[in-house]
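tool_call predict_complex ligand=arginine
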Amino acid sequence: MAKMWAGRTAGDTSKLADEFNSSIGFDSRMFKEDITGSIAHAQMLAKQGIIERKEADTLCDELLKILEDISSGKLPIDMDAEDIHMFVEEELTKRVGDVGKKLHTARSRNDQVALDLRMYLMNRVDELCADTKHLIAALTDKAEVYKEAIMPGYTHLQRAQPVMFGHHLLAYAMMLLRDVDRMTDCKRRMNISPIGCCALAGTTYDTDRYFEAEQLGFEGIAMNSLDGVSDRDFVIELLSDIAILMMHLSRLSEEIILWSSWEFGFVELSDAYTTGSSIMPQKKNSDMAELVRGKTGRVYGDLMGALTVLKGLPLAYNKDMQEDKEGVFDAVDTASMSVKIFIGMISTIKVRTENMKKAAQRGFINATDLADYLTKKGMPFRSAYKISGSIVAYCIENGEVLETLPLEKYKEYSDLFEQDLYEDIDLLTCVNKRNSVGGTSVQSIEQQIRFVREKL
Ligand code: ARG
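tool_result ok
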């Protein structure tokens, strides 16, 4: 097939090489950005007197029609084209004749692809941030409902101290707030226009890069043309941010999977987000959470792929860089789906507060409070810790719990124990006494909810 760039070479490329070289299969999704960029470019060329105003009008009108035709499905994208940039330019020239060939003046596919990718990813970052904020809102709403639901808080996956389920959910809201913050920050650096860097060295034409960037809504322009065409930091940064976001979702997935097991029985997922087994009739599997956990691995792979492709690449553009797109598109698509799934899963989750409470009552998770009780009565903490440990050991051996162990028994360990100890080791008291800022008390949870909602 004759190439637009045929000139230096006369012989045809092999069919296999064409297939190998082509990126249309994955870069066609940037058709809108490509056309928008070309319209801005034509406008700039006319403003600078590099092409006629009439010619620019013809180019822009037809580019808009091409955009409409692709969007409506009237113009199918030719999968035999080399990439989306070539496809649009070829279609334009087919429609308007020779004037179409003027569009690529003072431009290269190297700055064009860098521009398109930035614009495409900036839009996707906006969507992903908006979705993540919805998820944060869903978590916060649930946290409000369950701000007084006691559950065991864990360290080492051993019951540690009682916390409210709402407090636990808000921990994830905080993580996701940071994710939004990171992606927003990444977008700030992405918001720099590379167009006008041309192939690598700039151009001899009297272009106006600021005008072109401004039309496209960019905040600034790349100040070094070599860097402008070969910078893919924004891809790697976004991939890192998404990898962290997925890591957070994966941790929550793991907890949801544990919580919905028979062993925990803390939550039940809606049927809309679970599957059955083809053989075991009793099963209700948390496949969605498992998939999010699994897909996190895949997103890490996308990040490693991009880092590895860029490593050791000499300046400026190298075809290796075509490999930047599939991974980042996959990561954005995966994260976007995962966040959406989570919004539904969290909003419909049923919480078994009774089971959570029962589990909280059985793990001696008020033993710290028992030690604190003695400390407040004047005993040094280390001694109080030791005595409380011995009482727990006695209870375990004799099938007792701290809440119902008789006062006489307590007195065998220390004279400081009085009737008011029962109040201090009551689970609700234990939780609400943890009223330090960021603690698990109801009051603190309410403060956290206000904090999160203010950020949304
Ligand atoms: N399809 C290419 C990419 O995705 C476009 C840039 C090609 N430039 C070039 N000089 N071959 O990176």
